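User: Just a sanity check before I run the rest of the batch. Below are the structure tokens for the first item. I only need the designed sequence back.
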């Protein structure tokens, strides 16, 4: 038996960053490892510039994602004005108003989002002395120190995360006994007739890391560059992620 921390993520907009080249900012269909570590760090109050704290979160936990609904793709043509480095050297900026008071350049980019996606996450401790127990993480997710986002600040969660710690023989069993009140459940509790399409029957894909017991066979293995090496330099290493399909609940 293994212990897992389970929680859910649902929002009208989510952005799970992939490797970005040039002006293109793509989004994966599921949370990146770096995003989940950042979510735990925000809940605990671990700042991005705290290299020791971030390193402890990176080494101390493994993650699995049950992708109930990946959501639809939304592509935003994004413009932003930023000062040049030369201008900032001459006149350091302390506020956004200071930035716009000097010569600015317009940056164009294409940013992807996932609309109405729903994911369930499992967290398992590793043998590398995790800095916080699963119960501490659950409490932090219930009462986070910093605001939580699903990838970008424009993407706050739309439902409670409902963190809970369970014991199960595998990830499949853990997710089966999670009992989340997902989007459909909240709609029913509010007495609304609206239906969240694609979520009527829970099934979908399961993605997990090495050394986790999925309870199902892997169909594919992906290489993702989302393992944080250092937040200070914003560098990431590659890791292996396995994929299988969970049976649909009738």
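Assistant: Here's the designed sequence for the first item:
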């Amino acid at each position: 038996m293994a212990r897992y921390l389970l929680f859910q993520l649902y929002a009208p907009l989510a952005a799970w960053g992939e490797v970005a080249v040039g002006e293109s900012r793509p989004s994966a269909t599921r949370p990146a490892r770096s995003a989940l570590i950042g979510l735990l760090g925000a809940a605990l109050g671990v700042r991005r510039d705290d290299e020791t704290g971030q390193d402890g979160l990176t080494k101390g936990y493994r993650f699995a994602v049950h992708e109930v609904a990946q959501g639809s793709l939304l592509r935003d043509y994004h413009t932003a004005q930023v000062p040049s480095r030369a201008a900032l050297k001459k006149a350091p900026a302390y506020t956004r108003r200071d930035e716009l008071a000097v010569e600015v350049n317009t940056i164009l980019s294409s940013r992807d989002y996932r609309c109405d996606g729903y994911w369930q996450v499992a967290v398992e401790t590793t043998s590398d002395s995790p800095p916080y127990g699963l119960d501490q993480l659950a409490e932090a997710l219930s009462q986070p120190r910093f605001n939580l986002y699903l990838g970008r600040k424009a993407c706050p969660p739309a439902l409670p995360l409902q963190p809970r710690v369970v014991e199960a023989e595998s990830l499949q069993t853990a997710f089966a006994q999670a009992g989340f009140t997902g989007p459909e459940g909240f709609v029913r509790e509010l007495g609304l007739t609206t239906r969240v399409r694609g979520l009527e029957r829970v099934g979908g894909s399961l993605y997990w890391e090495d050394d986790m017991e999925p309870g199902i066979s892997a169909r594919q293995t992906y290489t993702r560059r989302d393992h944080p090496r250092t937040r200070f330099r914003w560098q990431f290493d590659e890791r292996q992620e396995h994929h299988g399909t969970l049976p649909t609940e009738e």
